[in-house]
Write a structure and sequence with these properties.
The structure is a homodimer.
Chain A: H1 4-12, H2 17-26, E1 31-33, E2 38-40, E3 49-54, E4 57-62, E5 68-74, E6 93-96, E7 100-105, H3 107-116, H4 118-144, H5 147-164, E8 173-175, H6 180-187, H7 191-203, E9 207-210, E10 213-216, H8 219-226, H9 240-248
Antiparallel strand pairs in A: 1-7, 2-6, 3-7, 4-5, 4-6, 8-10, 9-10
Helix pairs in contact in A: 1-4, 3-4, 5-7, 5-8, 6-7
The structure holds a DNA duplex (30 and 30 nucleotides).
DNA sequence: CGCAAGTTTGACGCTGCTCAATCACTGTGG
DNA sequence: CCACAGTGATTGAGCAGCGTCAAACTTGCG
């Protein structure tokens, strides 16, 4: 028995049977949510921690003029910010891009698991650090790259993230439940310009995209044209335990 | 005896004498660094946690084509990511925008203080959450606003952050050690366009900026034209302790 | 069959970029 | 004390990437 949450955390820290059992217990009783619904809205108090088992979600803000900006995508295994319950109110909303299977974890259960199992704590910290690094890379992406590089970069990232949870086919295709409006709201572009840029990506035989299914035809070239370097995803090569022992002086 | 670090954390959690003493101990032995130097570079292993007592620093990335993007500013009291030592290597660099007074904290000392004093742990988590929320707001800023709103928004934010650590004069002026190139690299604009936009901000009598000193002439209007809402800075109104008790079920 | 949502296309204009020159200020050496 | 070099600010002219507006087309679905 496993799920995307466990698959993901196992990449960040070696988890034993006890830890895995604890994570399974946390992810019991998921509920189905319908596409388009919001898990939580800006201004509300964060009372629970959401965790995605299936489907896509997205963080977003709406500005006074009605424009929306998408801040992050959440895919299976992703957690909505483990410490967020500390805050007075949400500064952004989280909505669903597809039907989804969602676990609602009471903060105190999560905290308890983190205290009991240091490996879980470390894996969750790691996940948090990666989320933050991803935000930084998105900032660079919007700030410095043109529309072509921008969208290519996004596709490279989602390709690796989907790979990490085993959702990419052998033909390098995966589900991408995004409309062109949503891609635009993510990249700071209009849907019209996204459309034209996608056409160029197709014309240059880098991707295929129909029916919410994206195929990466030439991963190397797609990474090259977008300046994509996956270091910010910190997919960790060297054993985490060793590194921590070096830096903290003793086993934690 | 106090410093910007303590001032800042006190805003996030009520700290007793013991906690303050512990923070003072952590911030002993600061070193002077010269403007322009890097605290740490992309690709290096993060071995220590840096904390700024005086001066400005900035997180940045350099792309293959040589362009630079600035991801965040660090002002007195700010800490360079408390858990960063968990990562294999830095995904960005941190440089100094001015001469600075910097403390180098060994991760194990910081961890020890967090374990011994839950209030310190909470204050540091809070600070981390605010850093992340700020990144999200910057993403919205670059993604959705034009150059005029963008720069106005940045100035609003820095004004509040400098206020929080007592570095704003009664005339609403504070040091802003940024060149126009740096503002451009922050906002995804060229220095030429920043120059023209600053002229417009001056012409509309919103700000004054000479000699690296920024004066906010009309805070309300500056916030209005930029769509600035300070909620993402989570400056906390209601007592933190109460909120946590509600949500975790018992005093931590 | 017909609507709704999403995609595609075209024409046109503006924001912000490029290139290039000039200006202001400051620190340096003769 | 002045020439001058270096850094940052400012200005101008021309251009292009991307936005706007509007319409047509395509697909899924009740």
């Amino acid at each position: 028995m496993s799920n995307a949450f466990i698959t993901k955390l196992c990449r960040y820290a070696p988890l034993g049977d006890n830890e895995i059992a604890a994570l399974e217990k946390l992810s019991r009783n998921p509920r189905r949510w319908a596409s388009g619904r919001d898990l939580i809205r800006e201004g509300q108090r964060p009372e629970i921690v959401f965790m995605l088992l299936e489907g896509w979600a997205y963080r977003y803000k709406i500005l006074k003029d009605g424009s929306r900006h998408i801040l992050a995508y959440l895919v299976p295994g992703d957690v909505c910010d483990i410490h967020i319950f500390m805050l007075d109110e949400m500064d952004h909303s989280i909505g669903l891009l597809s039907d989804a299977l969602v676990v609602e974890i009471p903060p105190k259960d999560l905290m308890a698991a983190m205290e009991k199992y240091p490996a879980i704590q470390r894996a969750l910290w790691w996940a948090t650090l990666v989320d933050e690094a991803t935000l930084r890379e998105w900032l660079v992406n919007i700030g410095q790259r043109d529309s072509f590089e921008r969208i290519a970069h996004l596709f490279c990232e989602m390709w690796l993230r989907m790979q990490a949870i085993g959702l990419v086919n052998e033909d390098e295709s995966f589900d991408l439940p995004l409309t062109q409006v949503e891609i635009g709201d993510t990249m700071g572009l209009t849907a019209v310009h996204v459309n034209r840029t996608l056409q160029r990506l197709r014309r240059e035989e880098l991707i295929t995209l129909d029916n919410a299914r994206l195929t990466i035809l030439d991963p190397k070239r797609l990474a090259a044209v977008s300046g994509f370097r996956p270091n910010y995803l910190h997919r960790g090569t060297e054993p985490l335990e060793k590194r921590l022992r070096e830096r903290l002086g003793a086993p934690v």
